[in-house]
Design a protein that fits this description.
This protein is of the alpha+beta class. Among the domains are: 130 residues, Up-down Bundle (Glutathione S-transferase Yfyf (Class Pi), Chain A, domain 2); 64 residues, no CATH class; 185 residues, Neurolysin, domain 3. The protein has a five-stranded mixed beta sheet. A two-stranded antiparallel sheet has the order 1-2. A two-stranded antiparallel sheet has the order 7-8. Strand 7 and strand 8 form a beta hairpin. The radius of gyration is 25 Å and the shape is globular. The N and C termini lie far apart (71 Å).
Length: 676
């Protein structure tokens, strides 16, 4: 059988790949990578940086390409067959990774180079790579006795399976829920665009009336605008109870198993908790520093959050006689209060944010900042007809990257928005291999009468993910494992979060915010309203984000062995951040994919950590002009292109000239007054 994944390929050959190609390709890819590892071990020459450390980093390139294609499809275009293959191959890949990190002979060579490091004439990037490779062994059991190595392998295999199952259950829960409405009164309050989308969805399912799902473009408008409180309640409880029904898709035991195995693994390796293990390789360094950081912000935000909640509750009582606000009321009354205070709502803004125009806008911002141009191409092989593909060039017309954009929800795509890559950037033998980067989102789709018109929140999400994309596209490092977004986890959100700032700036909005029918630019008064409303309920939003970080640390910064009930443990963790009454039917942990499926375990705090960085960095731009070429060039040179080649604080200080100050975030959020 001709397997397209085993032939050398530049662009991923999606149209040629069949599901039956994946497992044989992954098995053979592992075999090829093992041979490369064997060649390093069997090298008769004394270990050197080049023949051991660099060789190790360049090894397994074909396997990396195959796994990136497979697991990206498992996130963006999955089906039962792909999920089954994922369950079969994940243990094989985990075993292979353990075969490397627990290989005594290989570790001996790495250790040999590491112990001579001060005598070697290494560049900063080479020093970082050597340190990273040594730690990838020492932090993953290379120094353990053989019986503990066996247990470590068992834990890693089990964790790989559990994380996959957790994610599959969340996706299945999302897909199986459908609210079918047949009376016009059921959709009162919904904007025409949301009604049309719901009617179109119903029609696609051969039903009369309207259908609402748990996908964000369907769920969010209903929670914001639907007048029927009982239906908002039903939808809210369905959304909040994913993986919490004591059935085949229940994730409670998976959560407990994951945290207990992570803790056991950390203890095996000599760490007190999973958080101690993770944070050793983060800017924050320790669980104590993370707790200190989160609690400092909590102190600043809590009184503002309670003030805002009181205001919202009084408003709901005044207009509808609501005595006690519930979770399903928050978005609805917040939207009404926002309209009253700022005379602004998403429906006013959406006509100015046609998806194609916003894409063009983010490209123009990238051109003004970094000299990039994006050329849409139809010749690139795609995994779904909705995917758009672009070639990216710099100011000198050198090819920079290939960019994929996949923007709308569908049954085979997990929820949320993310950036990923199909090929990393690196330099080898005089060639600078350029990356293939993808942004995957779940934005409001077009309807029969309207194109895809984005909410302002979707606009900021697009800019956010594109910031991650720029981090990948502008990568310019020698070694693949230090390239692009391969940085400390609490630094990775800086490039994404800083890009959101341009969405609030007149100079940037004027580039792309034009009415989809008339072409008229967004009125200045709307720009002013966007700016004025940018800190609306910032205290409540901060409290919400901090609650997720605190929940993550509660699961991972202590011994979880005595935790028996997921819901009651979660309620305890949320105690200091609760505004709304508790709902016994819901549980966040059972669908908290960031920490139980993705890579954010002991790292959810990093969103707020990076907000400190991005507020401080954007203050630098604001002081000199948001398209200041010199500052943009420094950001590109010291942050975007450098990946994980040096300590992130070193890189940040080179760009900014100082360490970040938390005051910039507090001022931007309106939590403290701006200094004169």
């Amino acid at each position: 059988m001709q397997n397209p994944l085993l032939a050398p390929f530049d662009q991923a050959p999606f149209s040629k790949i069949k599901n039956e190609h994946f497992k044989p390709a992954l098995v053979q890819g592992i075999d090829m990578a093992k041979k490369e590892i064997d060649a390093i071990i069997e090298n008769q020459e004394a270990p050197t940086f080049q023949n051991t450390i660099a060789a190790l980093d360049y090894s397994g390139h074909q396997l990396d390409r195959i796994t990136s294609v497979f697991f990206n499809l498992n996130s963006a275009e999955t089906n039962a067959e792909i999920q089954k293959i994922a369950q079969e191959v994940s243990p094989l890949l985990t075993e292979f990774r353990n075969d490397i990190t627990l290989n005594d002979k290989l570790f001996e060579r790495v250790k040999n180079v590491y112990e001579k490091r001060t005598a070697l004439d290494l560049t900063p990037e080479e020093i970082t790579l050597l340190d990273k490779k040594y730690k990838s062994f020492s932090r993953n059991g290379a120094n353990l006795p053989s019986d503990k190595k066996v247990r470590l392998r068992e834990i890693d295999t089990e964790l790989a399976k559990l994380k996959l199952t957790f994610g599959e259950n969340v996706l299945a829960e999302t897909n199986k829920y459908l609210m079918h409405l047949t009376n016009a009164s059921d959709v009162e309050g919904l904007p025409e665009s949301a009604k049309e989308a719901a009617a179109q969805l119903a029609k696609s399912k051969n039903k009369e009336g309207w259908c609402i799902t748990l996908d964000y473009p369907s769920y969010i408008p209903f929670m914001k605008y639907a007048n029927n409180r009982e239906q908002r309640r039903e939808l809210s409880l369905a959304f909040g109870s994913k993986g919490f029904h004591n059935d085949d898709l229940d994730n409670q035991q998976h959560v407990l198993n994951i945290v207990k195995l992570r803790h056991e693994r950390a203890q095996l390796l000599g760490y007190q908790t999973h958080a101690d293990f993770v944070l050793e390789e983060r800017m924050a360094e320790t669980p104590e520093k993370v707790s200190e950081f989160l609690n400092e912000l909590l102190k600043k935000a809590r009184s503002a959050a309670h003030r805002e909640f009181e205001q919202l509750q009084s408003f709901a009582k005044e207009i509808d006689g609501i005595d006690q606000l519930q979770k399903w009321d928050g978005a609805y009354y917040s939207e009404k209060l926002k309209q009253k205070l700022f005379d602004l709502d998403d429906e006013q803004l959406k006509p100015y944010f046609k998806l194609e125009n916003v894409m063009d806008g983010v490209f123009k911002v990238a051109e003004k900042l970094f000299g990039l141009t994006f050329k849409e191409v139809a010749t690139v092989d795609k995994y779904h007809k909705e995917v758009k593909t672009f070639e990216v060039y710099d100011a000198a017309q050198n090819f920079v990257a290939l960019f994929y954009g996949d923007f709308h929800p569908r049954a085979g795509k997990r929820g949320g928005a993310w950036m990923t890559s199909f090929k990393s950037q690196f330099r080898k033998e005089g060639t600078n291999v350029r990356p293939h980067i993808s942004n995957v989102c779940n934005f409001t789709p077009s309807t029969a009468s309207k194109p895809s018109l984005l909410t302002f929140n979707e606009v900021t999400t697009l800019f956010h993910e594109f910031g991650h994309g720029l981090h990948g596209m502008l990568a310019n490092t020698t070694y693949p494992s230090l390239s692009g977004t391969s940085v400390y986890w609490d630094f990775v959100e800086l490039p994404s979060q800083i890009m959101e700032n341009w969405c609030y700036e007149k100079e940037a909005l004027e580039l792309f915010a034009h009415h989809y029918e008339t072409g008229a630019p967004i009125p200045m008064e709307l720009i002013e309203k966007i700016k004025r409303s940018s800190t609306f309920q910032e205290g409540m939003q901060t409290l919400r984000q901090l609650s997720f970080g605190l929940l993550d640390m509660a699961w991972h910064a202590q011994d979880p062995s005595k935790i028996e009930d997921v819901k009651s443990f979660e309620a305890q963790a949320f105690e200091g951040t609760q505004l709304y009454p508790e709902t016994p039917e819901t549980c966040m942990s059972t669908s908290f994919s960031h920490i139980f499926q993705g890579g954010y375990a002991s790292g959810y705090y990093s969103y707020k950590w990076a907000e400190v960085l991005d507020a401080d960095a954007f203050a630098y731009f604001k002081a000199n002009g948001i398209f200041d070429h010199e500052i943009a060039e420094k950001f590109k040179e010291h942050v975007l292109s450098k990946g994980g080649t040096e300590n992130p604080m070193t890189l940040y200080k080179r760009f900014r000239g100082q360490e970040p100050k938390i005051e910039a975030l507090l001022e931007r959020s309106g939590l403290i007054k701006k200094s004169a």
